[in-house]
Amino acid sequence: MLRLAIRTGAGAGRTFDAPVEMVRIGRGPTNDLVIDDFQISAEHARILVGPGAPVLEDLRSTNGTTLVRGGARDVLDENVGYRVGLENGDVIELGAGDAVTTIEVTVEDDRDDARVVAVRHIEDLGQISAGVEENPHSLSALYRAQKRVGGSTNLDETLVAVADAVLSLVANATHVTIVLRGADEAGATYVPVLTRVRGPAGEGATPSGPVPITRSVFRKVVGERAAVLAAEASRDVGQSESLLGASIRSTIGVPLWRGDDILGVLQVDNRHAPAMLTQDDVEVLTVLAANASLAIESARLIKRLVMAEERLKKENTFLKSREEKRQTGTKKILGNSQAMATLLAQLEKVVETRVTVLVEGETGTGKELIASALHYRSRRRDKLFVTQNCAALPENLLESELFGHRRGSFTGATEDKKGLFEIADGGTLFLDEVTEMPLLLQSKLLRVLQEGEIRPVGATHVKQVSVRIVAASNRNLEAEVAGGRFREDLYYRLKVFPLRVPPLRERRDDIPLLAAAFLNRYGNEYDKPAGGFTQQATELLMAYDWPGNVRELENEVQRIVIELENDAFVTHEHLAPRIRRVEGIVARAGTTKGTLREMMDSVEKYVLLEALREHQHNKTNTAKTLGITREGLHKKLRQLGIA
Q1: Hey, what domains does the chain have and what are their CATH numbers?
Q2: What is the band of 330 on the pLDDT scale with cuts at 50, 70, 90?
Q3: Residue 373: enclosing H or E segment and its boundaries?
Q4: Do the beta carbons of residue 179 and residue 213 sit within 8 Å?
Q5: How far is Cα 186 from Cα 638, in angstroms, rounded to an integer?
Q6: 459: number of CA atoms within 13 Å, CB side?
Q7: CA dihedral (142, 143, 144, 150) positive or negative
Q8: CB neighbourhood size of 534 (10 A)
Q9: For position 560, what pLDDT does the model report?
Q10: Which long-range contacts (CB under 8 A, 24 or more apart) does 42-47 make?
Q11: Going by C-beta distance under 8 Å and a sequence separation of 6 or more, which residues neighbour residue 391?
Q12: Sign of CA dihedral 626, 629, 630, 633
């Protein structure tokens, strides 16, 4: 019996007798022992009152739990462990410092010098005795019982099947209790998990109330590692409180085991019945227990695996939905310009094909966003979209990352590892900065594209994969091939369907749309709503060339939101100096009010004329200064009516 007496705190003077196998302690109303002191967590600690010694466990409380025994103090934490066995006279302290609630523990041990009728040690369990073997009725009943146990599909069904099988095999049994050791503990913390009673028609039924456990018999089974029979239990086992309180006239305890490991105890009782349990009952139960032990342990393992699988499925679904939202939701493709319309039209043409796509464009234009759109708009969307920057790893690590390796294939390869090609099987693999891939790996990539085969580092066999490759580069692949830095045959394999992401300076009409989207996103993220951009600030943003493209624009808006006051408008003063450099050009150009395109054309015309004048109309030098080609300059001059 376990008694808890609160000595200090708001509930001082209260006592609590543990009527159940688990006593929950905390401030929350659902606890068994509710303590209202402020330092107590909602679910602070619990005590497991199993057939063995009670165990105190701290539930990762805020202010901690301390066990005081004989002047020694042990704080339950990650260093000493969150669980500790309780003994008579222990004091539990909940909280720390001056705010502590103390509970005195009284454990009345019902251990006794029991005399037993029969004992069968674990080495002999599971063997069919001659008496059982020669009894056709016993063998037939045992076969039916074991068949029922073996046919159970989950842990709950298995436990019920085992208990009901006992009632069918042992005619004089009135109560069956299954006690199991905690599945997550290396120590022997045992808890009763199921009790079945004999119904009016002899069938197994659920008891109407709690059924006491015979701790003395349980201890003998675990301590002696044997099946124990105690007939006339109140006389032969001893006058323990648990026996007398239960009015048990005879009882059998049979271990459930796996090898040398005791998994639990099967306790069978005869209460208020005219007949006693016998040695033959022990023989039958030990045979059943051998099969029941395997069935219960298998059911517990399957339950853990099913729970782990469900957890992994939920985590996978959550991560995939979050990634899809990240790729196609919060980072959806924005743009109404003609350049983006052309790109998106090309994207839709290739999205449902299997061809390799090469995404070209300057740094910061959003090549990965286009690659993810290819994946999430295709039938491969339910599989993984995996990315790898080929410039981020050295050659040996990049090969292992892409193709995987076998244990022992190189120093540090302590276990097998799947590569990204195998992980992305059925999905899409995005290879960013593909021109940085070493020539040796380029040949392996070519084999994947040609044959759909990969060979992990150190492996002797190949694996078939179905992966769509999307590659990207900010370099000119033709120049890389001409310079001998990129394989020509791989170049033709990758550039089956090229997609060019235009730089931001070629889609200036999209700048206000992008800037407003970034302003809204970071305003929500930092809880700093903004009023928007003034016309002058918008004109300056559109006049700037944005060498870092969309990424540079995003970083600029993020910086502005951090500095901006709530609900304020973004003015030209908030912009970075490099963007405001063109501020005076608008005024000097003498631009009249009109549409945004008309004003931008006026500013552009002024800039071109000023540049030509500075270089004495030398178009080659003018184009070089403006950062465009000579052909591009001629095109601009024709569009603006200058040439």
Answers
A1: 2-107 (2.60.200.20), 118-302 (3.30.450.40), 331-502 (3.40.50.300), 508-639 (1.10.8.60)
A2: very low
A3: helix 367-376
A4: yes
A5: 83
A6: 19
A7: positive
A8: 15
A9: 93
A10: 44/94, 45/92, 45/94, 46/22, 47/2, 47/4, 47/18, 47/22, 47/23, 47/86
A11: 432, 433, 436
A12: negative
Cα–Cα distance measured from residue 85 to residue 57, given in angstroms and rounded to the nearest whole number: 9
Report how far apart the first and last C-alpha atoms of the chain are (Å, whole number). Answer: 103
pLDDT of res. 499: 93
Q: Which residues in 544-565 are b (16+ Cβ under 10 Å) and which e? A: bbbebbbebbbebbeebbeebe
pLDDT at 352 over 60: yes
Over its C-alpha atoms, the chain yields an Rg (Å, rounded) of: 39
Residue for token digits 């080609």? 629
DSSP 16-78: EE--SSEEEEESSTTSSEE---TTS-TT-EEEE--SSS-EEEE-S-SS-EEEEETTEEEE-BT
Give phi and psi for 107, each to the nearest 5. Answer: -115, 115
CB 288 within 8 A of CB 166: yes
Q: What is the DSSP string of 489-515?
A: HHHHHHTTEEEEPPPGGG-GGGHHHHH
Give the pLDDT confidence score for residue 184 in this predicted structure.
Answer: 47
Query: Which stretch, 311-325, 395-409, 502-516, has highest mean pLDDT?
Result: 502-516
Confidence class for position 334, pLDDT limits 50, 70, 90: confident
Contact (CB, 8 A) for 216 and 240: yes
Rounded CA gap, 217 and 231, in Å? 12
Q: How confident is the model at residue 144 (pLDDT cuts 50, 70, 90)?
A: confident
Question: Taking Cα atoms as reference points, which of 252, 300, 311 lies closest to residue 276?
Answer: 252
CA distance 57 to 45: 6
List pLDDT tens digits, range 41-92: 989 999 887 666 788 999 888 889 999 998 898 898 877 778 888 888 999 9
| Euclidean distance between CA atoms 503 and 362, whole angstroms | 6
pLDDT band of residue 627 (cuts 50, 70, 90) is confident
Q: Sheet harboring 22-26: ordered strands across?
A: 33-34, 22-26, 45-48, 55-58, 83-85
Determine the pLDDT at residue 457. Answer: 87
Say whether 198 sits in a helix, a strand or coil.
strand
**How many Å apart are CA 158 and CA 161, to the nearest integer?**
5
Q: How far apart are CA 249 and CA 118, in angstroms?
A: 15
Distance of alpha carbon 586 from its chain centroid, rounded?
55
Is residue 427 within 8 A of residue 469, CB to CB? The reply is no
CA 77/CA 56 separation, integer angstroms: 12
- pLDDT for position 50: 63
User: Closest Cα to residue 546, out of 566, 588, 518?
Assistant: 518
CA–CA distance, 306 with 318 (Å, rounded to integer): 18
Under a CB-based contact definition with an 8 Å cutoff, are residues 208 and 227 in contact? no
How many other CB atoms are found less than 10 A from the CB of residue 298? 14
Return the C-alpha torsion angle 557, 559, 563, 566, nearest 10: 40
Q: How far is CA 257 from CA 166, 292, 374, in A?
A: 17, 9, 56
pLDDT, averaged across the chain = 82
pLDDT band, residue 314 (cuts 50/70/90): confident
Euclidean distance between CA atoms 74 and 81, whole angstroms = 10
Q: Are 165 and 148 in contact (CB under 8 A)?
A: yes
Instruction: State how far the Cα of 50 lies from the Cα of 23, in Å rounded to an integer.
Output: 11
